[in-house]
From TrEMBL, chain A:
It is found in: Nucleus. Residues 199-249 form the BHLH domain. GO terms for cellular component: nucleus. The keyword Nucleotide-binding does not apply. InterPro entries: bHLH_dom, bHLH_ZIP_TF, HLH_DNA-bd_sf. GO terms for molecular function: DNA-binding transcription factor activity; protein dimerization activity. This is BHLH domain-containing protein. Residues 118-129 have a biased composition (Polar residues). Gene3D superfamilies: Helix-loop-helix DNA-binding domain. PANTHER family: STEROL REGULATORY ELEMENT-BINDING PROTEIN, TRANSCRIPTION FACTOR BHLH48-RELATED. Residues 158-175 have a biased composition (Basic residues).
Automatic annotation (TrEMBL), chain B:
The keyword Nucleotide-binding does not apply. Pfam families: IBH1_N. The keyword Glycosyltransferase does not apply. Keywords: Transcription, Transcription regulation. Residues 6-64 form the IBH1-like N-terminal domain. It comes from Gossypium raimondii. One of its GO terms (biological process) is regulation of DNA-templated transcription. This is IBH1-like N-terminal domain-containing protein. It comes from the Eukaryota.
């Protein structure tokens, strides 16, 4: 918890140069924050969004109108890693910097190179893997390339490509070739391109191919993120799924905001009453099913996605010890778990309850 | 892996509650639709600001928070059906070798993909100005932020519903 707060604090200091209010803001504990927010009277009556964001107007304008934003992106390149641990997501400038040194793609390429260089590969299977690794490695190096059009470099590339083409036949030679290539990669300061066998080698198509590889890599990440996309092949259908997912999420937000508006007559949700009974109280499992089953769940779309959210929430429960002091979030997690566990029977009860609520309001 | 997910959630909740507090002092009596609009607006802005200006969509959302509700997107499928029909006609009329067929299918696929990227651009805030690579990155980020928003709003709604029940 401490480290987490610490890292968020450092990150905030790096990314938001204004700093003062926001950094102090984040160093405090969560529940204390909430209570402070609730009890503090509204100081400024300005309902402008700049006030909302705790940034002065000039800062907001700077954020929106460029060069600051580039600095932000570069400065927060390590921050982006946290975004989702399963993939690496460096910014473009970060990519270019890395390429200048190693000409290997950030995370995945390294792993594959290490695999290809392991001395255990002797059997035919391993040689086949090596072939694949050899083929994928050029793909990845191509993907890490920015647009370069240097004639001498191209000549060197063409020579290397010729060597590579000769080498493709035998496995032993390919192994040495990978070793050579890696040594070359570390010696040379600039990025080099490797064309696969039988493909055009002029700079335009190389750049085009690099761009396409980048796009394909990102699409794979998207496929992992959106549920149900793993089995679909073909860009158009995957994009269809992504569009459906984004639309359904947006519609859920609309619906949930409507629901929040109906449930509470006051716009600040009576936060005191929400948090005081929950903070520090023991949530015994016995009360939960009875309280949770009559909840509203009329949107059918939402049910479809609940299973995927359930998967995410299970991980969150494992991480609960980290949130030790943040009782509010803790309560949300346990609430959600119980919500998700007592599931489908809510539908019929839900519509009834919705009508009841409307009558009450 | 899911730790940043939770920090994003905390960020979002903090900022959202702040925003709602501010709304409270501006106008005492609001109709239900105004309330809903205010809630959604504050939630969207809070979510966008929780990204701290790192992503394009968040900046676009902050500068223009009122977005039209997404209604229909089945236009793409009808357009694609027309394209496929047209391509079938072409294939029937022209006697083509394998290479040309490959070309035609490739162009059809490109058309489909182009239509869909246009739709995606209309969905993501600020998406019309991005190239394809940026678009996909922004989509990734936007989807995770939307999920966070939905989770938080849902838990808040259920918590408040649960809290209001003992009063009956």
């Amino acid at each position: 918890m401490e480290s987490n707060a610490g890292t968020t604090e450092t990150r905030s200091n790096v990314t938001v140069p204004d700093g003062g209010e926001v950094a102090a803001f984040e160093s405090l504990q969560f529940t204390d924050e909430i209570h402070r927010l609730i009890s503090a009277p509204g100081t400024d009556n300005a309902s402008s969004f700049t006030a909302l964001l705790e940034l002065p107007a000039t800062q907001v304008v700077e954020l929106l109108h460029s060069p600051e934003s580039v600095k932000l992106i570069v400065a927060s390149a390590p921050n982006v890693e946290d975004f989702k641990g399963s993939f690496h997501f460096p910014s473009n400038t970060g990519l270019i910097q890395k390429d200048a040194r190693f000409s290997v793609f950030s995370g995945e390429g390294n792993n594959k190179n290490e695999k290809s260089n392991s001395p255990e590969m002797t059997s035919k299977n391993s040689s086949a893997n090596l072939e694949k690794a050899v083929k994928s490695e050029p793909a990845e190096t191509v993907s890490s390339l920015p647009l370069v059009s240097d004639p001498t470099m191209e000549n060197r590339n063409i020579k290397r490509k010729d060597r590579e083409k000769k080498v493709k036949g035998s496995t032993k030679k390919s192994k040495t070739a990978t070793n050579e290539r890696l040594e070359d990669a570390e010696k040379l300061p600039y990025v080099h391109v490797r064309a696969r066998r039988g493909q055009a080698t002029d700079s335009h198509s190389l750049a085009e191919r690099a761009r396409r590889e980048k796009i394909n890599a990102r699409m794979k990440l998207l496929q992992e993120l959106v549920p149900g996309c793993n089995k679909i092949s073909g860009t158009a259908l995957v994009l269809d799924e992504i569009i459906n997912h984004v639309q359904s999420l947006q519609r859920q937000v609309e619906f949930l905001s409507m629901r929040l508006a109906t449930v509470n007559p006051r716009i600040d949700f009576n936060l005191d009453s929400l948090f005081t009974p929950e903070s520090g109280s023991t949530m015994d499992g016995g009360n939960f099913p009875s309280l949770v089953t009559p909840l509203i769940w009329p949107d059918v779309q939402v049910n479809g996605y609940r299973k995927q959210f359930q998967h995410q929430w299970h991980f969150d429960t494992l991480k609960q010890p980290i949130w030790g002091r943040e009782e509010v979030c803790n309560n949300y997690v346990t609430l959600e778990n119980s919500l998700l566990s007592c599931d489908s029977s809510a539908n019929s009860a839900a519509t009834l309850h919705a009508n009841q609520l409307k009558m009450e309001l | 892996m899911h730790l940043p997910h939770s920090t994003l959630k905390q960020e979002f909740v903090k900022k959202w509650i702040m925003g709602l507090q501010r709304c409270k002092f501006s106008n005492k009596k609001m109709s239900i639709f105004e309330r809903k609009k205010a809630i959604k607006l504050s939630a969207d802005t809070a979510m966008a600001s929780a990204r701290k200006g790192l992503t394009c969509w968040s900046r676009a959302l902050i500068s223009n928070p009122d977005r039209p509700v997404p209604t229909t997107t089945r236009r793409a499928s009808s357009a694609c059906k027309k394209i496929v029909k047209r391509s079938r006609r072409i294939r029937r009329t022209a006697k083509c070798g394998a290479a040309r067929k490959g070309q035609i299918t490739r162009s059809i696929a490109q058309c489909l993909v182009r239509k869909r990227t246009q739709i995606l651009k209309s969905l993501i805030p600020g998406g019309e100005f991005m190239n394809e690579v940026c678009l996909i990155e922004e989509t990734l980020d936007y989807i995770t932020s939307l999920r966070v928003q939905v989770d938080v709003m849902r838990s808040l709604a259920s918590a408040s519903a649960r809290a209001s029940e003992p009063h009956n």
